[in-house]
Amino acid sequence: MKAIVYTDTGDANVLSLVERDRPEPGPGEVRVRVAVSGVNPTDWKSRAGASTRRRVSVESVPHQDGSGTVDAVGAGVTSVAVGDRVWIYLAAPDNGLTGTAQEYTVQPEHRVVKLPEGVSLDVGASLGVPAMTAHRALTVIEGGPTRLSPGALTGRTVLVAGGAGAVGHAAIQLGVWAGATVITTVSGPEKAVLARAAGAGHVINYRTDDVVARVREIAPEGVDVVVEVSPSRNWDIDLAVIRPRGTVAVYANDGGNDLTLNIGAGMGPNVRLQFMLLYTVGDEVMSAAAQDISAALADGALPVGQEHGLPLVRFGLEDMAAAHDAVQGGTVGKVLVDVVTG
How many domains does the chain have? Predict the structure, then answer.
């Protein structure tokens, strides 16, 4: 089978297309014939080795997310069967052999989720990291639900920073599906069009508008949660728009790693600063997210594509370096790699 591998961290040129033996599933494992592999920022950052080039202990196959068809199952597997269309999440948590950038991947049963009827493989490959991160952000609201469902966030207001990104897009869609009032910030008119297409009720251009004033017009008492992509840039805004006992849920460090806090300003309103990383959030939380995302999919709540606010940017397996460079370069939309066609 064809696979993308790397044995040294570095720029995208460390990625190689090779032939490997098709893996066999063991007890409790599922083999998936991968159709589409989703590329996330975490994938190129892992491949780059953060800031230090290093030798990888094993020949690593990248990518956490993907979709395809169950090809074989090991003993004891009951949730999926051969022939099921599925989506995969956190396929390569240790940057090992199991990523989705290969024609077949073997995964633990709990990381392989059946796609509802009529949901495309493109949607399936666009879930994983973005949708599960968004789910986590929307379920850390003080006094809010730990699970999402239609109406679960009715009466709540969510501010999504950077609504044109993949996580922002998923947070908008899940928030609207769960009944929240969703406000989002974007950097320009084209991204505003995408955010509205995703379902955001209110879109603010942070380069031309007074974000605090606009948010307070929409939500005079403040927002329940900020889904934050750039805390180092936005912390003062977050403090100015969060309601008492509200949560700022941080999932990325766009704009820098360092955050200077005015401790007293956060203590007064009892603001919660919630950091999030899927690798350490725990299987119970991820399993709950997968169930809720599946319910949202069944309701048609997580579509992708230009008309739904998340343009798809496609590459072939042989163009993997270009796919990684596109994500690293900030391409607007979801980068997908077609692994197996036909």
Answer: 2
